[in-house]
């Protein structure tokens, strides 16, 4: 039986989710949302991906966008072993696909990527995504599955900041605080951590919108809706990706995991300085 291609349809989603209010929503609002999320462009990529999954799907998306990746420090990536690849998160999607491609090819597709559970709706990557509830408590089943994956032979990829980078004090673009889970999981699963620095940034308008949302006291990550547009703005770009030497799990202090996570974050940003 032929699989129906995944397609984004904002109008249909709004009609299904808001049946009582749909007829009162102006058509221009729906068209505006479709343009903001780049519906046509995303559907073109999804059509090209077809029934491909994981690493192959990432390769197609990167090719469609004309993305070139330049890697540095590949000698720091062991051929065997179990690792956590901990990266900064500058872009909010394109960087994730790039790491799926780079690390997935290195280890024969045997990878798991910790992501916002909302992203499990992106079916071409649901075989490599490992959902994490960013806005509530983990279910016992979900937490147990995460622990099982850390005990498995697969390589784990994570953005410890959770959200993509923002404009910080002093105008510097960088990750928010890294979550301590990257340290506690490294120690409990006895995995060394490989720091990854992805050299990229979003547009100024993205950071301005994020800052405005914060000033208005809105806690929900509204700027997330702009990420597809940011992805297409990066079309044709070349990104440099730096891999650091593995940090031994025995050197990490799980009793001071938050401070250790901050040190790992700092080591990632030092990779660019050392290049």
How would you characterize this protein structure?
The strands form two sheets. Strands 1-9-8-2-5-3-4 form a seven-stranded mixed sheet, with helices on both faces. It has helices at 10-17, 27-36, 39-49, 54-64, 94-106, 140-151, 181-189, 204-215, 227-233, 257-274, and strands spanning 68-72, 83-87, 111-116, 129-132, 155-158, 166-167, 173-174, 192-199, 238-243. The chain contains ten helices and nine strands. Strand 6 (166-167) and strand 7 form a beta hairpin. Helix 3 packs across helix 4 (54-64) and helix 4 (54-64) packs across helix 5 (94-106). The chain is of the alpha/beta class and 275 residues long.
Give the percentage of residues in beta strands: 15-25%
| DSSP summary: helix tally | 10
Strand order across the largest sheet: 1-9-8-2-5-3-4
Query: What is the SS-derived class?
Result: alpha/beta
The chain-level mean pLDDT equals 91
Summarize the biggest pleated sheet: 7 strands, mixed
Helix content: 40-55%
Rounded to an integer, what's the Rg over CA atoms?
19 Å
Count all strands and give the number: 9
Bulk shape: globular
What characteristics describe this protein?
single chain, 275 residues, alpha/beta, seven-stranded mixed sheet, two-stranded antiparallel sheet, 10 helices, 9 strands, 40% helix, globular
């Amino acid at each position: 039986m032929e699989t129906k291609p995944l397609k984004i349809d904002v109008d249909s989603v709004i009609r299904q989710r808001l049946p009582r209010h749909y007829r009162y929503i102006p058509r221009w609002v729906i068209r505006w949302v479709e343009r903001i999320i780049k519906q046509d462009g995303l559907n073109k990529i999804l059509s090209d991906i077809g029934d491909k999954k994981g690493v192959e799907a990432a390769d197609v998306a990167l090719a469609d966008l004309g993305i070139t990746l330049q890697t540095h420090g590949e000698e720091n990536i062991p051929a065997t072993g179990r690792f956590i690849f901990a990266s900064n998160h500058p872009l909010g999607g394109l960087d994730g696909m790039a790491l799926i491609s780079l690390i997935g090819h290195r280890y024969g597709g045997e990878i798991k990527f910790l992501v916002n559970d909302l992203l499990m709706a992106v079916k071409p990557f649901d075989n490599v995504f490992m959902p994490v509830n960013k806005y509530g408590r983990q279910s016992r089943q979900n937490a147990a599955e995460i622990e099982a994956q850390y005990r498995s032979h697969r390589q784990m990829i994570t953005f410890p900041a959770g959200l993509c980078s923002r404009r910080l004090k002093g105008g510097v673009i960088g990750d928010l605080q890294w979550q301590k889970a990257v340290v506690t999981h490294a120690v409990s699963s006895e995995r060394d951590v490989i720091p990854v620095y992805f050299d990229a940034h979003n547009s100024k308008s993205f950071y301005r919108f994020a800052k405005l949302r914060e000033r208005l006291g809105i806690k929900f990550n509204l700027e997330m809706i702009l990420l597809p547009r940011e992805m297409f703005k990066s079309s044709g770009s070349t990104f440099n990706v730096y891999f650091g030497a593995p940090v031994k799990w025995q050197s990490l202090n799980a009793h001071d995991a938050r401070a250790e996570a901050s040190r790992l974050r700092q080591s990632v940003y030092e990779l660019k300085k050392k290049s």
